[in-house]
From TrEMBL:
It holds the Pfam family Glyco_hydro_44. This is Endoglucanase. Residues 216-463 form the Glycoside hydrolase family 44 catalytic domain.
Length: 698
């Protein structure tokens, strides 16, 4: 908690350390203390009159309303305040929460108009201040105390084993190259704790990776530079090989990335694509190596005449084939513990931004599709047992158009002009559909009928309010983020940023996993689905754990085949425990089942429920997620599912963010012997919590 600069604020912060007893409730005592101290004048109550001795044009006092209020997490409250004074004084105010201007996620936020949004979890109380901008010594304060809402009846939950289930692919519990950023050497412990299934080597930084030299170009992320590491034993010792070996130790499948863009770093010499000596002064230069710039002239125009061979060299599919053959020789083929899956590059949407020094033009249908097929064929030639994923597209509108099409748009909606000639010249098909159809045609035309594309692979950074990769926000933001997990499946969910690509005025339900399956069914049946980058933020917070657990449950229920979180969680962080719920809830290998069972909630926005049977020991596993800020009590009905009379219970909540707690067994009550229906009666689901029930199926 930050230090505070006023007596009133210190009293609020240190409230638990002031001795009692108090006749009045503690919060009201502090309300009075703050109100008395908060005027910045001799008056100590709301009825006080302005100081007539103040000079002209001066503020003598500030009043605020209400002065005390009790709220619950998730509430929003409007405060009003007004300065009083003499002359033509400035009536401006600055709002703060616990002396933090504008507040923060821990204390709640307050707008310039005095609208307060509560945090979650909420402290016992906070102080709101309205301070005169003309005379900061004049301010008024209000106290908010927080009360937990009473336990409410939650929505009905039903698990029904009669409906046919489907296999849950364990690859949905994957992560992205967490070994690359591991300052605390925690990666092995994280992999063990979550029993990691998939580790993807990906991102913008590997698009130009040269396996022979163990070096990549950093592109737009850092001055388009080749920055050599200290390695002298390449290619056998390299960043990628280190990941493969670590994955083998933890029995994790490795997913690599191979170049489709066609450029890799050419040497281990420190080099930049926009040398100041060659291309002149630039807006920014590398603060550690000032000889290289960002490729933007001082007047803001981009340098477009650079020589791409300053740092990189062209490669084709034969280069990739050589890499895969090298990996097979060193680690074995995919069927025998080698690299299992190869991703066809990374996010072509941004090649002309992140890699504009070598790829200044936006991607086209033909470039990504035709070059992707050549590289896929090379991978399959080198390792017929390996799988391939593509096109690894991340931008909503590039699911439907090429970036060449999109960059032709000029003007501001609705007054725009455009030339979508790339799409129209390819049968007016959405890009993803064209991509799938073309790969299918290549398989049909191949005498060996070789499948070149095993996974339709997309990235989905669709958390509400651009929350991905950011800390948790206020309760309002947390609620929006949790609601936005519906983006994967719900036909009624829309996002203002995800509009109908053919009618920008209309929002379009993304329902990403279901849409991917629809594309596959229509254009290339048998192709699996993968989301190899996503992030919903808040990994340090219980709300981030709840969102992550909800996503993993959705992945399994909806039948996604592979998933990989970008931004792997730290050891013992809330987000890590979300993975443990599904992979190792009891620290003894207890995992969510591998065959999905139908599970439904009368209100998934409050309580989400996911169920599966574990085939190795016939255990039914049920995960219930409370996405609200209050405790809920519900029955879990088990229909057409005969189980033992007891269920093991494990729970993760804000009560203890450092472990999943084992709770007393729950009683399974038989409701109908004929229908094999039973129930877990009156189960308590704490606010923002994840609960696992485990019981044997008879």
């Amino acid at each position: 908690m930050p230090s505070t600069g006023t007596v009133a604020a210190r009293l609020v912060v240190k409230r638990r350390h002031i001795p009692g007893p108090f006749t009045l409730p503690l919060a009201l005592v502090f309300a009075q203390l703050i109100l008395c101290l908060g005027r910045g004048s001799a008056q100590a109550n709301s009825a006080a009159k302005p100081d007539q001795s103040a000079p002209p044009g001066a503020v003598s006092m500030v009043t605020i309303s209400p002065e005390h209020v009790t709220l619950a997490a998730g509430d929003i409250k409007q405060f009003s305040a007004a300065p009083s004074g003499t002359g033509g004084y400035d009536k401006g105010l600055t709002w703060s929460v616990n002396d933090v201007d504008g507040g923060n996620a821990a204390f709640g936020t307050i707008s310039k108009s005095g609208l307060y949004v509560t945090p979650y979890p909420a402290p016992q109380s906070v102080a709101i201040k309205a301070r005169s901008t003309l005379d900061p010594a004049k301010w008024a304060a209000a106290v908010i105390t927080f009360a937990a809402p009473p336990v409410a009846r939650g929505p009905s939950l039903t698990v029904d084993a009669e409906a046919a289930g489907h296999a849950i692919n364990p690859l949905i519990y994957g992560m992205n190259a967490y070994r690359q950023e591991d300052p605390n050497n925690e990666s092995a412990e994280v992999a063990k704790a979550v029993r990691l299934t998939l580790n993807r080597w990906g991102g913008d930084g590997v698009t130009r990776y040269n396996y022979k030299l163990d070096i990549s170009n950093h592109g737009d992320h850092w001055f388009y530079e080749n920055i050599p590491n200290s390695n002298t034993q390449y290619p056998d010792v390299s960043d990628f090989n280190t990941q493969v070996m670590g994955d083998r130790e933890s029995r994790t499948k490795t997913m690599g990335t191979v170049p489709v863009m066609g450029w890799v770093a050419k040497s281990r010499t420190m080099a930049g694509s926009f040398a100041v000596a060659k291309y002149g002064p630039q807006q920014k230069t590398d603060p550690y190596w000032k000889t290289f710039g960002n490729g933007v002239k001082p007047d803001g125009t981009k340098i477009t005449i650079n020589d791409p061979t300053d740092t990189c060299m062209r490669v084709d599919a034969s280069w990739t084939e050589g890499w895969v053959k090298y990996l097979v020789g060193r680690f074995g083929d995919a069927a025998h513990g080698g690299v299992a899956i190869y991703s066809l590059d990374n996010e072509p949407s941004w090649w002309d931004l992140n890699h504009r020094d070598v790829h200044p033009l936006p991607f086209t249908y033909d470039e990504v599709t035709e070059n992707g097929m050549k590289v896929a064929r090379a991978v399959k030639e080198a390792d017929p047992t390996a799988e391939v994923s593509g096109p690894v597209m991340d931008y909503w509108f590039t699911y439907f158009y090429s970036m060449k099409d999109l960059e032709s748009v000029k003007g501001t909606w609705p007054n725009v002009t455009y030339d979508f000639s790339d799409r129209t010249s390819h049968g007016n098909l959405p890009f993803i559909e064209y991509y799938l159809k073309t790969f299918r045609a290549a398989q049909d035309a191949d005498p060996k009928h070789t499948r070149l594309l095993d996974y339709l692979d997309l990235h989905t950074y669709f958390a509400a309010n651009d929350a991905g990769l950011k800390p948790a926000g206020t309760s309002e933001q947390q609620r929006a983020v949790l609601d936005s997990t519906r983006v994967f499946w719900d036909p009624t969910y829309t996002d203002p940023n995800l509009r109908d690509p053919n009618n920008y005025a209309q929002m379009m339900p993304p329902m990403m996993i279901r849409r991917m399956k629809q594309w596959v069914a229509a254009d290339y049946p048998g192709t699996k689905t993968a989301i190899t980058e996503y992030n919903w933020g808040g990994q340090e917070h219980i709300s981030g754990a709840v969102a992550q657990a909800d996503i993993l449950g959705i992945f399994g229920r909806e039948g996604l085949d592979m998933g990989a979180l970008w931004g792997a969680p730290e050891l013992n962080s809330p987000a890590m425990f979300a993975f443990k719920i599904f992979r190792n809830y009891d620290d003894a290998g207890g995992e969510f089942g591998d065959t999905s069972i139908a599970a439904s909630s009368a209100d998934q926005g409050k309580l989400a429920v996911y169920a599966a049977v574990r085939s190795v020991d016939d255990m039914a596993t049920i995960v219930v997620i409370n996405k609200t800020f209050g405790d809920l009590k519900s029955d879990v009905v088990l229909a057409h599912l005969k189980t033992e009379k007891q269920a093991k219970v494990f729970q993760y909540s804000s009560t203890d963010l450092k472990q999943i707690r084992a709770l007393p067994d729950a009683v399974v009550t038989r409701e109908s012997k004929k229908e094999k229906t039973s129930a877990l009666k009156d189960q308590m689901f704490p606010a923002m919590s994840i609960t696992v029930f485990v019981t044997r199926v008879k």
